Prior knowledge:
The chain is of the alpha/beta class. Helix content is 42%, strand content 16%. It folds into two domains: 63-173 and 313-340, Rossmann fold (3-Layer(aba) Sandwich); 175-311, Rossmann fold (3-Layer(aba) Sandwich). It is built from eleven helices and 13 strands. The protein starts with a helix and ends with a helix.
Amino acid sequence: xxxxxxxxxxxVCMAMLVGCAAPAATPAPPVVITAPPVVVTAPPVVVTAPPVVVTAPPAEGxxxxxxxxxxxxxxxxxxxxxxxxxxxxxxxxQTPKLSVTFLGAQSESNINEEINIVQSAIDRGVKxxxxxxxxxxxxxxxxxxxKDAGIPVVVIDSLLAGDKSNYVSFLATDNKAxxxxxxxxxxxxxxxxxxxxxxxxxxxxxxxxxxxxxxxGGFNDYIKANSKFTLLQTxxxxxxxxxxxxxxxxxxxxxxxxxxxxGANEPTAIGMGRAIAQAKLGGKIxxxxxxxxxxxxxxxxxxxxxxxxxxxxxxxxxxxVKTAYDVSIxxxxxxxxxxxxxxxxxxxxxxxxxxxxxxx
Length: 360
C-alpha cells in the first residue's frame, strides 16, 4: 500500500509539473527590414573640348574696273559701253564681284571734268582704268597719278603724249591709216566725176585729241601728197552736232565751188550730213564721214554721204575691259598696242556681214 501511494504521489507531482510548464512559444514572424534604395547620383561628366577654329580664306572683295570716256553723249561711246558690259558679264564667271563702271564728261571739250572723273576713280581705289583721253597732254599727269597708286591704265581710242610706260596698253583704230583711207576714197570718187582739182573742207572735232591728230593729219597729208586739191582751213565743232551743222551750212554758202567735205567724227559728220541735206547738195559734192551711227548709215543709203569709215567701238570697250582685267586681276602681260581696225562702208557693202559687225 505504501508503495502504491508513493507511485501515485510521484505521478501527481509530475502531472503538476507538466501543467505548470510554460506553454510552447509561438514562432515570431520574420523581421523584414526593407532598406530604402540607395540612389547614387554621379555628377555629370563635362568634357570641354578645345574650340574648333575654322579659318576661312578671306572673302574676295569687290573689284571695279572704271571705263572713262570723252563723253557719254554719243552713240559711238554708248557702243563702247555695250562692249565693256559684255566683257563684264563674261568675266564675272571667274570673278563674281567684278563690276565695270562707265563714266564720261558732258562733252568731249570738257577736259577738266574728265580729269576729275579719273582722279575720283583713283581715290576710291579701283582695280584698273580704261581711259579714252579727251586731250593728248592734259590727261598725262592724272594717268601718272594712277600708275603711282598702283592702278594700271589701258588707253583706248586716242593716244597720250609723253611716257608710254604710264599706261599698260593702247587699243585703237589706226587713225592715221583711217584718215588716209578716207582721203584716198575721196580722191577716187572725185576722179570718177572727172575732178582732179578744187576745194576740200575738213570738219573736225576737238583740236589736240590724239585720234583727231592721227585721223585729220592722215587725211590732210594724203591729200597734199597725192592730189592737186586745195584744203580749206579746218573747222572744229568741239564734237557738238548743232555746231557742226551751223559751221557746215556756212562753209557751203561761202564756197559754192566746194567739191569735197570730210566729217571726222560721229557728231561732226551727222551735223555735216544734215547741212548737206538741208542745202539739197546730196550727191553733188563728195562727202565722207566717220563712225557708224544710224543717222550716218541713213545718209549713206540716201546718197547724202558717199562713205563712212567705221571703227569697232564695241571692240574698244570689250577688249579694253578684258585687257584691264588680265593685267590687274589675272596678273598677265598684255600687248603694248592693239589695232581694233576700221571698215570703209559704202552703199555697195552697207548690208554685208562685215558692215553689220561694226555699225551700231
